[in-house]
Amino acid sequence: MKRRAKAAAPKQAPRKRVLKTLDRALSKLGFCSRTEAEGWIRAGRVRVNGRAQTNPEAWVELGRDRIAVDNKPLFEGRKRYLLLYKPRGYLTTWRDPQGRPTVYDLLGKTCEWLFPVGRLDLDTSGLLLMTNDSEFAELITNPGYHVPKTYLVKTSTLLGDDQLAALRRGIELKDGPTRPAGVVRLRDSGGRTFLEITITEGRNRQVRRMMEAAGSQVLKLVRTAIGPVRIGRLEIGKWRELTAEEVRALRQCARRQAKRAARAESRRREPPQPV
Ligand code: URA
Questions:
Q1: How far away, in angstroms, is 89 Cα from ligand 1 center?
Q2: How many Cα neighbours within 13 Å face the side chain of 125?
Q3: How far apart are CA 153 and CA 196, in angstroms?
Q4: Radius of gyration in angstroms for the set of CA atoms belonging to the chain, rounded to a whole number
Q5: Which one is catalytic: 65, 121, 161, 188?
Q6: Which of 87, 139, 114 is nearest to 241 (CA)?
Q7: Is residue 121 annotated as a catalytic residue, yes or no?
């Protein structure tokens, strides 16, 4: 009997496909709201791989399908990765119907097709990554990868050790308990607590909601790091390119965290057998 040749093990893990509906893709990439995207698509302004696509629900694969709005490709040329120090009062969207400033006002014309990697609230300042690499953005923002994000927080009241312990353990929010967080008290002064918190999720207004659940409020919130990349001495409102080493370190951090989370999950599902 003929023996079947054993399939060679793939040298690399298969590339993760990032599939989204066309309207979600445009809004997730920060170009417009989902409603605006739907209007553009129905009006025939959006092309996918050279053909007009008028169905907002059509699936597209980010990083592979070529998407263009008004014949302008969304992703051109080399991959770019910027680190911007977002000031308070700037939106992380492409345009604001109310005319408020957006992070694109800080980038200048050449960077107009980059999109933010995740969002920061209007009132949050600090480290914002911008890129045209959707696969990279997915690695950093996908909740399954657990990339740590670090924030400096000034709270409206003094927080006791028990409140900090609750934040560390995980605190109950409307959309479920938070994962364990790293929390370090930096100082107490003038009736406020200054702390550093590191979370591995990216839920909407998460840090603000965590402080509210702990019985206080955020007065100031600054993101200082994503994984191994820190904001350092960059001036507020300025940006710089990430180094190749920083991009590599971020990818590595996401993969490592994802593996760690998968191991923890399988331990949780399969408790040790009694002997
Ligand atoms: N958590 C928040 O509450 N707001 C942000 O902008 C980021 C994290």
A1: 13
A2: 15
A3: 6
A4: 21
A5: 121
A6: 114
A7: yes
